[in-house]
Amino acid sequence: MRQLVITELGKIGHSESDELMRVMQSKRIDDEIIDTILVCEHEEIVTVGPRARNDGINPPPGYATSPVDRGGGLTWHGPGQLVIYPIIKWDLEGESNVKAVIAILEEWVIAALSKLGIEGHRDERMQGVWVGDNKICSIGLSFLRWTSRHGLTINCNTPSGRVEMVSGCGLGQDTTTSLAALGIDTTTEMVMQSLRETIATLSRTLTE
C-alpha cells in the first residue's frame, strides 16, 4: 500500500521546480518524506530531452527552451496545462520496470478523463494518453534508485496553436494538442479534481 501526498505549487518557474524535484527526490530516497505528487503550471517553455537532442529535433523559432534529463523529446509547457511531477519510490508489486511505471501513470490519466466523459487511450506511436488521433498527455521520467522525478503533462485549455506547433519525436506538428482544441469543454481545475478522485490507480491511501 502506498501513502501519497499531493502538493499544489500553483504557477512556478521551470528551473525552480527542477531544483525542488531534485531535493525532494533525494529526500524520498532517504525516506525523509513519503511519496509526493507535485502539481503546478509553468510559463511557456519547451523542455528538450535527450532523445530530441540526439535526433537533432528543435522547437520552432519563438519558443523559450530548457534542456532536461528526463526520457523523451520535446515537451511544451505553458498556461492551461497541468504539470504533474510524481516523486515516488516505485517499489510495489508490478513496478519492476520503466514501462510498467509509465503504464500505471497512463491508467491514472485515462481513469480521470473517463470520469469526465472523455475517452482516453494509449497509442503505439508514443507513450502518453491520446484522445482520438491526438496526444493530450505526455510522459517523461528520470529515475535515481528507482525513485522518479519529472513526470507528465495534460493539455487542458492551452493557447491556440502553441503546443500544436511543437513536434515530438517522430510526431508531426498538430499531433499533440489540448482538450479544448478538440472541442472538449474542460478546465485544469476539473481535470485535477478528477485526478484526485482516481488516485487509487496509484495507491489506496491518500494523505493531504
Structural class: alpha/beta
Please identify the top-level CATH class.
Alpha Beta
Radius of gyration: 16 Å
Remind me, CATH topology? Answer: BirA Bifunctional Protein, domain 2
Could you say which overall geometry the principal axes of the C-alpha atoms support? globular
Please tell me the total number of domains: 1
Helix content: 10-25%
What is the second-level CATH architecture? 2-Layer Sandwich
- Give the full name of the CATH homologous superfamily: Bira Bifunctional Protein, Domain 2
Give the averaged pLDDT, no decimals: 92
Report, as a whole number of angstroms, the end-to-end distance.
16 Å
Task: Give a short summary of the structure.
This protein has helices at residues 14-29, 50-55, 98-115, 188-197; strands at residues 3-11, 35-41, 45-48, 65-67, 74-77, 81-87, 121-123, 126-131, 134-144, 147-155, 205-207. The protein has 208 residues and is of the alpha/beta class.
What would you say this structure looks like, in words?
By secondary structure, the protein is α/β, with parallel strands linked by helices. The protein has one domain (3-207): BirA Bifunctional Protein, domain 2, CATH 3.30.930. The chain contains 4 helices and 11 strands; from the N terminus they run βαββαβββαββββαβ. The model is unreliable at 204-208 (pLDDT under 50).
